[in-house]
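INFO batch 0412 | record 1 of 1 | parsing
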Amino acid sequence: MSAPMLFWCCVGLVAYAYAGYPLLAAALARMRGTQPRVAPAGGSEYPPITVVVAAHDEQRTIAARVRNLLVQDYPADRLRVLVVSDGSRDNTVAAADVGDPRASVLTLPRNVGKAAALNAALACIDTPLVAFADARQVFADDALRHLVAPFADPAIGLVSGELVIQARDGTADADGVGLYWRMEKRLRCDEARLGWLHGATGAIHAMRRELFAPIPPGTVLDDMWMPLQVLLAGRRVWMERRAIAIDRASADSGEEFRRKLRTLAGNWQLLARLPVLLDPWRNPVFFAWFSHKFLRLMVPWALLAALLASAVAATGSPLYRLLLVAQLLAYAGAGAGLLLPRLAARVPLLSTAGSFVMLNLAALLSLPASLAWNPARLWRKH
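INFO prediction complete | emitting tokens
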């Protein structure tokens, strides 16, 4: 393959992954998308539900988190909270006891990781619905009610809520993740309307207890394992944007990079643990998974190949010299956006360019990270 042809193939892959596929999903969702039947507000259709919070050394936050869940706008006699203390070395267990009989604590003697902690929790739950929450975020007052409503449709097996990321002062959405996160949420909504959604928001999702399949210990992306198991069982995954969990933005770009690296490395791990994903005849959402998840893991390699191909082609073509310079300037601007946040705040799209480069650097390193790291190291606080 010639250098110019390689360049345009790589550009096409990047364009399809980040623009072509989202536009296609949006168009198809408008033409043939469907929504589930939902329970009437305030009706008697809200079944018993248990909210599971896996926690490790969360004594400072767990009491407030449990209270936030217990005061949800949901029938009190149908709501339970189960905190799984995953080998906590501090006073998480005592702090989680808020004096409400609807809240209980399951204590694991040693740190086994989030996947194993969730497995232990599900073995103790008998409610028809189970919701999953993290210790760090908070739910909006009506989050559970909205999260449960779509289960009135028997085709729905799992419902994901929406994560709203605020600046650390709590005043507004964080700029650094704004455009990318808005595009990602729009894509997930379109996928949900098409029956293609194959992931959930880890901070807020719920599923039918009967559809839970034990998660292999050490699995990083439990919030993808569960939706994929629901899809393989023939049910549908939905996204309910009115079910809101609120999180704070990362303290700095280094923290955000580590989060992205963990998630992207988890995609490679999930592929190894669930090879059915690669089978278009057995994976009911193969097209969406391949376009949304797998190709984005390929994008950084395509970006590198495009840069090298344009450098080779530049020796005999003014067009490719111009394209090479444009790429180098774009990467320099993205680097400035990451290293100089005040400048990025003043220059339009500079922060977005920095976020794009950081995301793809994490994607580039995700494969060696997934091969080199102990799975337990990929998991941090819940």
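INFO post-check: The chain has a mean pLDDT of 89.
INFO record closed
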